[in-house]
Design a protein that fits this description.
Layout: H1 2-18, H2 45-59, H3 75-78, H4 113-126, E1 128-130, E2 137-139, H5 141-146, H6 157-172, H7 176-180, H8 185-191, H9 209-230, E3 238-241, E4 274-279, E5 285-290, E6 297-302, E7 306-311, E8 318-323, E9 329-334, E10 340-345, E11 350-354, E12 360-364, E13 370-375, E14 384-389, E15 394-398, E16 403-408, E17 415-421, E18 426-431, E19 436-440, E20 446-450, E21 460-463, E22 469-474, E23 478-483, E24 490-497, E25 508-510, E26 516-520, E27 525-530, E28 536-541, E29 547-552, E30 560-564, E31 568-572
Antiparallel strand pairs: 1-2, 3-8, 4-31, 5-6, 6-7, 7-8, 9-10, 10-11, 11-12, 13-14, 14-15, 15-16, 17-18, 18-19, 19-20, 21-22, 22-23, 23-24, 25-26, 26-27, 27-28, 29-30, 30-31
GO molecular function: mRNA binding
Subcellular location: Nucleus
Biased composition (Polar residues): 18-27
Length: 573
């Protein structure tokens, strides 16, 4: 072992003796030999600049306006988005158009902004929110169960009521002194102005002379126009007497009935032949009325704006013409004794005339077209006028005072007829709304309303002489019969048909003994039906065009007058 140890020591010494000693004082320092190159010396500053420029060109985007590119751009450069000029005040350098958030540009998320706000506010109030990635919830699940998973925008019903009550309580508790004090929040809440409130402040208050003049002219014109539209058109009333003399040798008026005029017998017969024609109207005749009780005169309303009265018994000529309307006359109606009559025209006027002298006693107008005029048939109520108007109302006037005393306003269309029933205590009206309404006279409340899906408009209604039945001309070419008793029931067993009246307001009428029903039609015929059997008894070809009106003579039981749109009035026996 000792020999091995000696051997190891000797080998270490030998190694040390082989290595040159750098620490010895006598050894010389190492020498570096400079390298030499045979190539000439070159200035490479420009080369470095060119390389840097090329690198910069590769990194910067291409200007879309330049036509020539001096280098080969990469794919990324060609498809890079267009950069605008850097914002001078923005640190991140985002163009102004791209900025949609205070921190820069934010892309649209897949979640709707309303949904996000709802869940954001729900989380802050209740502690839970719906997870947009799935159908589960995150946050406080106990609160979720307790609140039944409602969001802040789904306020429960009881909560809404509570809020409303609280709001009303707050309004009630407001101190009135606080409302008047501009320093309080209450005053601010009451007087806060909308964003548009200040817009009116610039309006000038003083008008110039020119503007004042224009305003006055405009107001004047409007007043004239309103006045004209409100009332009917004004026409000078004129009348012409065509007879020989207004009074005979005994001093009797020309309208006085003959002393011997009385019914020859109670049995009515159907007329067969034409006995007289009255011609004088230049346009169609819209209505005719015999003088009450006696029928010695017949009154006619023309579409030529004139109303004429004709002699029936003697000369058969026109006795007087009444001119007071500017448009066609729609309806006429005698008072009980025939000394006065009413006319209704399309010029929106209703006129009350003296039959004998032709003077207009009074004029009424509401600014609407009257379609039907009637006086109350009671002797003590002859001063009460009812008119069915185009504005769906029935207007009641007192003729003595000229005042409107009542308005019956329930119909849904223009009023066509007014018929008094039940000893004149009630009246029935028909209208374009295809209904019948029964009114208590003087009370504007409907006591019976008749409207069926199969009903048509009824432009003419007539009362049977026994006052128990109403005959209504229906525009589906039939005459319907209604009872005037309490229930105003339709009598299904009585129905008169065969004539064509669709589209025309052809008048329906009864013979004085109630045995016959008659009506004009759209083809100029006059139809007669038997009341009991409802069968057609006879038809007469009366007029060219429409036969609009027909009246049975009150005394001479076999005589009938008809009028048509051909301008003629014909008398049949």
């Amino acid at each position: 072992m000792d020999s091995l140890q000696i051997y190891a020591d000797n080998s270490d010494e030998e190694d040390l003796s082989h290595q040159p000693s750098t620490l010895s004082a006598d050894s010389s320092p190492p020498r570096l030999i400079p390298s030499k190159s045979a190539a000439p010396k070159v200035d490479d500053t420009m080369l470095a600049l060119t390389a840097a420029e090329a690198r910069q060109a590769q990194s910067r985007p291409i200007d879309p306006t330049q036509h020539v590119v001096a280098f080969n751009p990469t794919y990324d450069q060609l498809w890079a988005p267009t950069y605008g000029p850097a914002h001078p005040y923005a640190k991140d350098g985002i163009a102004q158009g791209m900025r949609n958030h205070k921190l820069g540009f934010v892309e649209d998320a897949s979640i709707d902004s309303f949904v996000f706000d709802e869940q954001y506010n729900t989380f802050h109030k209740y502690g839970y929110a719906a997870d947009p990635s799935g159908s589960n919830y995150i946050g406080d699940l106990d609160a979720l169960q307790k609140n039944d998973a409602i969001s802040v925008y789904n306020i429960p019903q009881h909560e809404q009521k509570k809020r409303k009550i609280e709001r009303e309580k707050d309004e009630d508790e407001v101190d009135p002194t606080e409302i008047d004090n501009p320093a309080t929040d209450v005053w601010l809440m009451k007087n806060k102005r909308s964003p548009w409130a200040g817009k009116k402040e610039g309006v000038q208050t003083e008008l110039t002379e020119e503007q004042k003049k224009y305003a006055e002219e405009y107001a004047k014109k409007k007043e004239e126009k309103g006045h004209k539209g409100e009332k009917g058109e004004h026409v000078v009333d004129k009348t012409t007497f065509h007879g020989k003399e207004e009074r005979d040798y005994q001093g009797r008026s020309w309208i006085a009935p003959p002393k011997d005029a009385k019914a020859t017998n109670d049995h009515c017969y159907i007329p067969k032949r034409l006995v007289h024609t009255w011609s004088g109207h230049t346009k169609g005749v819209s209505a005719i009325r015999f003088f009450p009780k006696y029928g010695h005169l017949i009154l006619s309303a023309g579409m030529d704006t004139k109303v004429k009265i004709w002699d029936v018994f003697n000369s058969g000529k026109c006795m007087r013409t009444y001119m007071g309307h500017s448009k066609a006359v729609r309806d006429i109606s005698f008072c009980n004794d025939g000394t006065k009559f009413l006319t209704a025209g399309y010029d929106k006027n209703i006129k009350y005339w003296d039959t004998e002298t032709g003077q207009v006693i009074s004029t009424f107008s509401t600014g609407k077209v009257p379609y039907v005029v009637k006086l109350n048939p009671d002797e003590d109520k002859q001063n009460i006028l009812l008119a069915g108007m185009s504005d769906k109302k029935i207007v009641q006037w007192d003729i003595n005072t000229g005042q409107i005393t009542q308005e019956y306003d329930q119909h849904l269309g223009a009023v066509n007829t007014i018929t008094f029933v039940d000893n004149n205590r009630r009246f029935v009206t028909s209208s374009d709304d295809k209904s019948l309404r029964v009114w208590e006279f003087g009370i504007p409340v409907v006591i019976k309303y008749i409207s069926e899906p199969h009903m048509h408009s009824m432009p003419s209604i007539s009362l049977h002489p026994n006052t128990n039945w109403l005959a209504a001309q229906s525009l589906d070419n039939q005459i319907l019969i209604y009872s005037t008793r309490e229930r105003f029931q339709l009598n299904k067993k009585k129905r008169f048909a065969g004539h064509i009246v669709a589209g025309y307001a052809c008048q329906v009428n009864f013979s004085p003994d109630g045995r016959f029903v008659m009506s004009g039609d759209g083809e100029g015929k006059c139809w007669f039906w038997d009341w009991k059997s409802c069968k057609v008894f006879r038809t007469l070809k009366c007029h060219e065009g429409v036969c609009i009106g027909c009246e049975w003579h009150p005394l001479e039981q076999s005589k009938v007058a008809t009028c048509g749109w051909d301008g003629l009035i014909k008398y049949w026996d």
